[in-house]
Design a protein that fits this description.
Chain lengths: ~450, ~475
């Protein structure tokens, strides 16, 4: 058996495996794309680009108790027990302030690194967690079902031929926003276990179990090289290959991505340390890993982390306090960490939640599904401040008891894609509205 | 549509497919036995499981807590300090019960003589997706599980009605505390969106009106059961799905299930679960009318499905991504090994993305390709080593890596697969024979030529073969894209 390669990058892998011009029509879509890009020449410096970190607040964060309109009587009338008392609010101006647990974000506001977008939502809001999450993840209009995620479409549009690690989701699942016609992106929980582990006594040997694992998980075409060439031209590849919905094709692609990214991530994780201490929480651990991967120079454009538990129908106050406390302190530690690395100017963090909650508290000490809510952006390059228009809390101006949105989330996505990720947004978002100025 | 499979197409491969999908698969002998029955009887044997009841006894603690009233009183009287202590004790007990319950169910899936009953129970668990994270009561979780087992093949409306009154569900979607002064919409919404009709088939107004109708369906904490509280009920008229009346909870369920699109919604989901992909528009129509023809009863509908040509089409067979639970239970069955200890199976399933009794949200597990991420695939490959050799390969990593909160938990030794239980004598001396034995057992189908060549080469590099070599070959075969499909 010939010595199987340790995979550093898809690029090396393919260059070592394929003869130019001898590709058969059986090439899976993801490889044909990579090969096409290889022919076009190497891509430009992947590690010097801006990085987006998306933080999902899953369950529907109560926006009104996050950014508190402490000078508004309608707020306290709607929330006699749940309202955050004005004296405890971390005031940002004369009208709004942060929940007292968000000290971390208040500090970022003080250093000019926090953007608070008010009243973010979309027309015809949907109160289903799943549908509304889907709308945010796919950047679709409320009435339209869009198959692919907005980040997946961005990868597809602007990152052709990139490493699978161009998108990294921390966790076991891959977010819907990463889904794309030719999906890119990997998910991992922790680098230490993100590998094929072996108890084979022949470890390290050429005939070790691991080397056979690498062979068994190589897509067909790579083993067959030019020999399987049936004369089909490269130009016909795109029309004839099976779609990625073919489960075996999909599994092979994922297996290859797992090999490539596992080798890469474990190598760089060893040499990359967190430079500040983080509070203890699940979100904190995720951002800690993101900081190490950024510090290690992983060629990633988008990281994705999430914090769950925001569906506060009953006895909201204790759990919501805890969640916001974890959110603010984790983001602040992360911000300090990348600053210590010298990467502060390269990173923009953005939160989102599928919806805010009903203005009026419910009978169980909680709040029900609502609509518009604030969204945070954090970074040294963001346009800071209290942005957009505050939603109107006057009972007669609510829609079914919910806030009407004042900023469409897609204008923020458009701003991020254009001003931060540096590419044209119209064809990715299929949205004709203007991009918000976010930097 | 849905015409019976031609007898000529029935054989080992189709019997293996049926056993995989209607159950959790099995070793070649079981498949041969099923194949020899012929399609008609094979389906009968799997679907008519009610004719000889399964007498497996549930865990000892699965009964109402007789001391509960006393405990609740004591708790109210206790000081703050004492309360904390009592809560700690209770949480520990609940945790232990859940570990036991999960393992009890998994063992049942492995060893049951009614595999379809357990498979259906798993389907309904995913459909009604109730999590112990919120319910926090192992007894209630067991009750719901038992309900799915008892009624999972019965009439749809009867099952739905029982689920709506099931204590775990009453807690899970907040119905148990919904009163007329302020109806909670959670259950009313999900019953339409996720359980019966699907998004877009009802209006926001239908949700608020249905929530009013459900008021008064409550949960009695003291004796852990469903009660109707007339004083909590909004007795006024409601207009739901275009019909007005003094509707109660029972009426709402009848109304939603009798919507014209309701049969298609539930049969699509059932088909997707058993066939592994959504049905075509035409098939979907046929599935729904077949369901209506059988009075919306699951069992006879399943008999038609399992005998149908469509169910054995090449786009269905070996095209389903194994769920983590299927992966684990099926592996134990085909390797003829017992499950690893309870703490290990719980941990493995959590890592692979399907912790029983703890679906990620009300929608349940997405399933299909969503089971597979780079992370989950590597976890499956490493879990294969553990299941085959009994040793967790990541325990080695733990020793080397520095200590931290993210360290993988150590798994107890689980014992290796006992090859002498099913390997034939020729397998030890003839690698080609061994290769055929392994591919039949693990894949019930021939491997791709590339995979065969690799395994052949592996076996040649280890000749003469000892137990470790063969165990390792099995692990490698399980660490392939191909093994993740059924």
């Amino acid at each position: 058996m010939n010595n199987p390669p340790t995979l550093k990058t898809r690029r090396e892998f393919l260059q070592g495996s394929l003869l130019a011009g001898s590709l058969s029509w059986t090439i899976p879509a993801f490889l044909s794309r990579t090969i096409t890009t290889l022919r076009a020449g190497p891509s430009t410096g992947e590690t010097d680009r801006n990085i987006l970190v998306v933080v999902q607040l899953a369950g529907g964060n109560d926006g009104l108790n996050t950014l508190v309109p402490f000078s508004n009587d309608d707020y306290y009338k709607a929330r006699p027990n749940l309202g955050v008392p004005a004296r405890t609010v971390l005031k940002l101006n004369d009208e709004v302030g942060l929940h007292p647990a968000l000290g971390g974000l208040r500090d970022l506001h003080a250093s000019g690194q926090l953007a608070v977008w008010q009243g973010v939502g979309y027309p015809n809001p949907n109160r289903s967690h799943f549908r509304s999450t889907e709308i945010w993840q796919t950047a679709s209009a409320s009435e339209i079902n869009e198959k692919y995620g907005w980040l997946g479409r961005y990868f597809d549009h602007a990152c052709a031929g990139a490493e699978p690690t161009v998108g990294v989701s921390v966790g076991r699942q891959s977010p819907q926003s990463f889904a794309g016609p030719k999906p890119l992106g990997v998910s991992l929980e922790q680098p230490e276990t993100y590998r094929f582990a072996d108890t084979d006594p022949a470890q390290g040997n050429m005939a070790s179990g691991e080397s056979f694992y690498r062979h068994l998980n190589r897509p067909d075409i790579l083993d067959n090289g030019g020999e399987m060439n049936t004369g089909g031209s490269v130009g016909s590849v795109a029309g004839t290959i099976a779609s990625h919905q073919n489960p075996l094709d999909f599994l092979e692609r994922t297996a290859l991505d797992a090999q490539v990214s596992s080798d890469r991530i474990r190598a760089l994780n060893k040499n990359s340390l967190n430079r500040v201490s983080y509070p203890v929480s699940a979100l904190s651990n995720q951002l800690k890993l993101v900081a190490r991967l950024i510090g290690g120079g992983l060629p990633t454009r988008v990281f994705y982390v999430s914090q769950g538990g925001y569906d506060t129908h009953t006895n909201q106050s204790g759990s919501h306090d805890r969640l916001l406390g974890e959110l603010g302190s984790a983001i602040k530690a992360f911000n300090e960490d990348i600053k210590a690395q010298g990467n502060l100017d390269k990173v923009l963090l953005m939160t989102f939640s599928e919806f805010g909650r009903r203005v009026k508290q419910n009978a169980n000490g909680g709040t029900d599904h609502g609509a518009a809510a604030p969204l945070f952006m954090v970074g040294s390059k963001v346009r800071p401040g209290i942005l957009g228009t505050a939603p109107d809390l006057t009972p007669t101006n609510l829609h079914n008891g919910d806030l009407k949105f004042t900023t469409d989330f897609r204008s923020l996505y458009a701003g991020v894609i254009e001003q931060w990720l540096g590419t044209e947004s119209k064809s990715i978002l299929k949205w004709s509205g203007p991009a918000a100025r976010i930097t | 549509m849905l015409s019976p499979l031609a007898p000529a197409k029935w054989g080992f491969a189709s019997a293996a497919h049926l056993l995989n999908r209607a159950g959790f698969g099995g070793p070649p002998k079981q498949i041969d036995q099923l194949a020899s029955l012929g399609l008609e009887k094979a389906v009968d044997q799997l679907v008519k499981f009610d004719q000889n009841p399964d007498l497996t006894s549930p865990p000892a603690w699965t009964k109402p807590d007789s001391d509960r009233v006393k405990e609740l009183q004591e708790f109210r009287k206790a000081s703050l300090e004492e309360r904390k202590e009592l809560q700690k004790v209770r949480r520990r007990m609940q945790r232990n019960h859940m570990t036991e319950l999960r393992h009890w169910w998994l063992n049942r899936m492995v060893s049951t003589s009614h595999p379809l009953q357990e498979k259906l129970t798993l389907f309904w668990h995913g459909h009604f997706a109730t999590s112990v994270q919120k319910v926090k009561d192992a007894y209630l979780m067991w009750r719901q599980n038992d309900l799915f087992r008892r009624q999972g093949a019965g009439e749809w409306l009867a099952l739905l009605t029982e689920v709506a009154k099931d204590p775990a569900m009453l807690v899970w979607l907040d119905q148990g505390q919904s009163r007329k002064e302020n109806p909670n919409e959670n259950f009313a919404r999900e019953v339409m969106e996720l359980f019966t009709l699907g998004e877009g088939q009802y209006t926001e107004k239908d949700v608020t009106e249905a929530a009013r109708a459900f008021t008064g369906w409550a949960y009695e904490r003291a004796d852990q059961r469903f009660v109707v509280r007339p004083r909590w009920h909004d007795a006024g008229t409601k207009t739901i799905l275009g019909q007005s009346g003094y509707w109660t909870g029972n009426d709402v369920l009848k109304l939603v299930v009798s919507q014209p699109n309701a049969p298609e919604f539930i049969t699509q989901k059932l088909w997707n679960f058993f066939a592994g992909q959504p049905p075509s528009a035409e098939l979907s129509q046929a599935l729904a009318s077949e369901f209506v023809r059988h009075g919306q009863e699951i069992r006879p509908w399943l008999m038609t499905v399992f005998r149908s040509e469509e169910f054995y089409s090449p786009t269905v067979m070996r095209q389903q991504v194994k769920s983590p639970v299927f992966w684990l239970v099926n592996s134990a069955r085909i390797l003829q090994r017992e499950l690893p200890p309870a703490e290990a199976t719980n941990n493995l399933l959590r890592l692979m993305g399907q912790e029983l009794f703890a679906p990620p949200n009300v929608k349940g597990w997405d399933g299909g390709l969503a089971w597979i991420t780079t992370n989950n695939l590597l976890t499956r490959y490493n879990s294969a080593e553990y299941l085959v050799s009994g040793e967790n390969p990541l325990n080695y990593a733990t020793n080397r890596a520095k200590k931290g909160p993210n360290q993988p938990r150590r798994l107890p030794l689980a014992g290796a697969v006992r090859l002498d239980a099913w390997l034939e004598e020729e397998d030890w001396v003839d690698p080609e024979h061994l290769l055929r034995t392994l591919e039949t057992r693990l894949f019930q189908a021939p491997l791709r030529e590339k995979q065969r060549a690799n395994v052949r080469e592996y076996l040649a590099s280890r000749t003469p073969l000892d137990t470790t070599d063969i165990l390792h070959a099995i692990r490698l075969l399980m660490s392939t894209p191909d093994f993740q499909l059924t």
